[in-house]
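Bug report (template v2)

What were you trying to do?
Predict the complex of my protein with D-xylonic acid.

What happened?
Run completed; filing so the output is reviewed.

Input:
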Amino acid sequence: MKMNNLFKRLAVGVLLPSLLLLSACGSGQNESASADGIQERTIKAGIGNSKMHPQGKGMEKFKELVEEKSGGKMKVQNFFDATLGDDQKMTEALQGGLQEVTVPSTSPLVGMIKEFGIYDFPFVFNNEEEAYTVLDGTVGKKLLEKLPVHDLVGLGYWENGFRSLTNSKQPVKTAEDFKGLKLRTMQNEVHLDAFSKLGANPSPMAFSEVFTALETGTVDGQENPLATIQTQKYNEVQEYLSLTNHVYTPFVFLVSKKFWDDLSEQEQEIMSEAAQEAGKYQREVNQKENEKALKYLKKEGMKINEVEPEEMEKMKKAIQPVTDEYAQKFGPDLVEEMMNEVEKVREK
Ligand code: TK8
């Protein structure tokens, strides 16, 4: 009894006020709000790709912009190469308030928000402009609005981009060439089912495990945009690069909602503007670096092939049942809205 009372008093007298004090301070800052509404803060940001990848360059731009706009009060600490964990793990760290920012591919987030899977339908976008129209338009916004109930805030889309296939066995020129290939895919059911439909043996795997899996032959191949193939040095363990461009992957800029809710309006604006400005820059860099990467990979001796449009059409047909099935699951109206947006760009 006595202990109990003592504990209660301690709780009310010491623990409670210090807890209140802690939550008033929020995470990562040590000064109270100043006249301009900006406090000293440290923002821990992590991504899966390297500092040299366009995504890394985007993060460095974000850091520069936040620090500049906050007069040096808000600091961004960038962590690259999945040192804080892979996309799913970092997203969970944001939800728990242990990390402030991450920019994952949307694909591994489908376990949380299934509708993100509409971006995983192969051969939907023909070029970046079509993708930007959907992502920056009403469809893209609707999906970002699904984040806050999961303790996340989405500040827009960056670009991972069009994915192509590498493997150690053979050039992939036709739908038949996928048969029997052991492929790493992202942790995403649309990708898994689509590659299965083509006759490949796909297995889902976190990004940071891919190089070793390719090197040891656990899988024969993987698919990613060219800048990733270059910066992850997949060319050292893969002989063939087939320019399939089979699907476009966006990155989504995520902030921990716990952290976000603690920010002043001014601070939220700084984060939001910086994420968008850096995103614009990142998309430009990405397009340029993907072009450069193709030349680099050729020079490094990868055997590169294109895929004829009729063969692409056959691949698309083969996986149509998968797309149809998931369109039902994700919401036919949403899929229709996306396709209408794409059509509008095509008609221009
Ligand atoms: C990086 C990943 C990567 C993605 C993948 O964290 O997993 O293959 O393309 O860019 O998001």
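What did the reviewer find?
The chain is about 45% helix and 15% strand. The first strand starts at residue 41 and ends at 46.
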